[in-house]
Design goal:
Elements: E1 2-5, H1 10-21, E2 27-30, H2 38-48, H3 61-65, H4 68-71, H5 77-84, E3 95-97, E4 102-104, H6 108-115
Parallel strand pairs: 1-2
Antiparallel strand pairs: 1-3, 3-4
Helix pairs in contact: 2-5
């Protein structure tokens, strides 16, 4: 299982602590140093059953400063994947990627249902 996170993000740290407390093994990936590529993002999106907007870090500085919220409705899916792939700070975190599912953000109930 892949755990994509940003070490300075408090939500990522909480999620990692939760995984460790439940003895769940994972491969760690730093979202800024190793930003997800377009094809990965598309694959994760297709596994997730989530709207593509959920993959954007809507509370992030880059998202707000560039008024991405206003641009998304006019962007194609391909362009949204391309944009997400430009900067790891645009991508919502943490992300858990397993063979059959993808979790975006840390919601304990969702994580318990999928991981325990």
């Amino acid at each position: 299982m892949l755990f994509v996170q940003y070490p300075k993000c408090s939500t990522s740290r909480k999620a990692m602590k939760w995984l460790d407390e439940h003895n769940i093994e994972y491969e760690l990936r730093h979202i800024v140093e190793d930003n997800p590529k377009e094809d990965e993002l598309e694959e994760w999106y297709n596994k997730s059953d989530l709207p593509l907007k959920r993959f954007f870090n809507t509370s992030g500085k880059i998202y707000r400063e560039n008024k991405i919220k206003d641009k998304l409705p006019e962007m194609s899916q391909k362009d949204q994947f391309k944009l997400l792939a430009t900067d790891g700070m645009l991508v919502k975190r943490p992300i858990v990627v397993d063979d059959d599912f993808v979790l975006v953000g840390f919601k304990v109930k969702e994580w318990e249902e999928k991981l325990l």
